[in-house]
């Protein structure tokens, strides 16, 4: 699949159906799947998910509970393809992210670092 860059964003089209004017440049879209089979990949997925939720759904003043994050993570994965996230794993990941300065952890509540 290819994306065509222009001033209002990207339009997607199959490469064989290139009917866009020459003024738009073609950019190949590379899709990669999350690595949910390794500890580092799972930590990266949790980190990305927390940042995504605070950019799109939660306000900066809101707090995200570990339980809500566990539910979100498990729903975001294909069923029966990877091991489900549990509260203990997400709590450890949140502590790691808090130590690295990505977020603030207060008990089972998470919020972005100011």
UniProtKB/TrEMBL annotation:
This is Uncharacterized protein.
